[in-house]
Amino acid sequence: MLVRMIDDLKESTGVAIRMTSLAAAIALAAFVTISFLCAAAFVYVLQTHGLIAACLTGAAIFFVLAVIGIVIYAIRKSQDRHHAEETAKSGLQTALADPMVLAAGIQAARAIGVKRLVPLLAVGGLALGLLAKRPSSHQAPAE
Length: 143
Hints:
It is a single chain. The protein is mainly alpha-helical. It contains 4 helices and no strands. α1 (2-48) packs antiparallel against α2 (51-97). The longest helix is centred in the first third of the chain and has 47 residues, at 2-48. It is elongated, with a radius of gyration of 27 Å. The relative contact order is 0.05.
């Protein structure tokens, strides 16, 4: 189980690095393309309507691009949060259903003893309950 988790981590890290480098190359190409298009629009509007209209046109183009970027970012963040919640649930279920984890728990109970294990489980349950009630760092606190 631990080997599978490490392999999943390696795979996801490799995919993230490849996707990040691809996104950086695309962003650079898009930036150069948008720069030339904005320069062409600026020169055209400058020749036909004047300097103030050309500056306002450039500002409008960049404003529209910023709004599109904000919308895409918000959608992606929502999707990533939803995916992370599903992955966390399935990972916990997999860990609890693994026979090796259950065997290790039984061995620990035998080694520690039932009389000593009950207070440890009570303290662990209390800590888990407190952690579950605490708001996570990416969520807004409840009012």
